[in-house]
Design a protein that fits this description.
Length: about 400
């Protein structure tokens, strides 16, 4: 079951520590599977290794086994950088300490984790070989850091570690966030407008559409799915008004013209703006489109890597629509997957996708980092509704 949950809804738990601290052994013990390669040779784990697991009551999670913080050489620096990139999208961190105790490597990563505001626990592993020093334990107590003594080799206190992870997990991960469920009731009609264009995956719908349809079913509401050319016919065929119409952002202008004003209307991307991020901040960011000037640089953030099609939404359509709306000579740069620029200050605006392939933690961190650096940020759907002149209509179902 857990292997089929979308990557973007999984809680991410990252194990970080020096080489040979027992991170790989610990992740094997937690999952009760031989997932990570275990060796006495330091540096066995190079790139981060992901393991999907069902950790109840949290549900589907992903454990990451990472390279050692004391890795050396040019490749070692790249591996450490990859570890820090995984931490950026982590909901919980486990700092694994070996028999050498706390060293400057651990103190540095603890500071990084605290700066990112990630809940974490220090695990003194290999307690069967050497007990944690009184000095290290006093440090944890003085700093108010939760800690645990384990032995992955002996299987000691592994269940305690699982419970500790559950205890420190963000509160919002202990309940299901809502997409559209608070906008509809049992028995309501919901019309979903799903255009089928070159970017649509062959033989299936995109993940946001699938997740919304599933939530409609979970609410015991009735869903009808149509293409944009069929919306008027669909509405005319219903014996009562739908409680909500949800459309793909790319056709929001035409759909807004076909859906009567007394029927609530929004977009899949706007639903994801609050499901994965902060809708108010993303709306505020969209308003900054009005202040763009010639020569400004816009960041386009994509959560997934994909081969761009001829009329790609992020690389072609949005830049075209924003240039048409502003009349300005603008530059657009695209970053995909988990890549996100470190020099954010050089951008005048960031426009992010709906983040269906990111977990909420990483998306919120991107939003907050942009805000901290003074860079307005919005998402695809909100930006499109803004430049198409229908943003107020699209936001009307929400209490902002």
């Amino acid at each position: 079951m857990s292997s089929k949950a979308p990557r973007g809804v999984r809680l991410v738990i990252t194990l970080a520590g020096r080489r040979n601290a027992g991170k790989s052994s610990l992740i094997n013990a937690i999952t009760n599977q031989e997932i990570a390669i275990v060796s006495d040779m330091p540096g066995t784990t190079t790139d981060p290794v992901a393991k999907h697991y069902e950790l109840l009551p949290l549900g589907p999670v992903t454990f990451y086994d990472t390279a050692g913080l004391d890795d050396t050489g040019e490749l070692g620096e790249l591996r450490i950088k990859a570890t820090r990139k995984v931490l950026w999208r982590s909901d919980v961190a486990v700092v694994v300490v070996g028999e050498n105790g706390l060293t400057p490597y651990e103190f540095e990563i603890i500071n990084d984790i605290r700066e990112l505001d990630i809940p974490f626990i220090i695990v003194f592993n290999k307690s069967d070989l050497k007990e944690a020093s009184a000095k290290d334990l006093d440090y944890c107590r003085e700093k108010g850091i939760r800690f645990l003594l384990t032995s992955a080799e002996k299987g000691a206190h592994i269940d305690d570690l699982k419970q500790a992870i559950i205890d420190i997990a963000p509160a919002e991960m202990k309940f299901d966030p809502v997409l559209a469920g608070d906008l509809i009731n049992e028995g309501d009609w919901v019309v979903c407008v799903v255009p089928i264009d070159l970017a649509a995956p062959k033989g299936r719908l995109i993940l946001p559409q699938v997740q919304v349809l599933r939530e409609i079913l979970d609410c015991d509401a009735l869903s009808i799915t149509v293409k944009e050319r069929e919306i008027e016919e669909a509405l005319a065929g219903l014996n009562r008004k739908p409680a909500l119409v949800i459309t793909d952002s790319q056709v929001v202008h035409s759909v807004a013209g076909d859906v009567p004003e007394d029927i609530p209307l929004t977009t899949f991307s706007t639903l994801f703006a609050r499901y994965k991020g902060d809708l108010s901040k993303l709306v505020e960011g969209a308003q900054s489109i009005d202040t763009l000037e010639d020569g400004d640089t816009i960041l386009i953030g994509e959560a997934c890597s994909h081969h761009p099609v001829a009329d790609d939404i992020g690389r072609v359509k949005i830049p075209r629509w924003i240039k048409q709306y502003t009349g300005k000579d603008l530059t657009f740069e695209t970053y995909s997957g988990h890549d996100f620029p470190e020099d954010l200050e050089r951008f005048n605006l960031a426009i992010h996708c709906g983040a269906c392939m990111l977990n909420r933690t990483e998306m919120l961190r991107r939003i907050n980092e942009c805000s901290r650096r003074g860079v307005p940020i919005t998402n695809f759907g909100v930006a499109i509704s803004k430049v198409q002149g229908v943003l107020d209509r699209i936001l009307s179902p929400f209490a902002l």
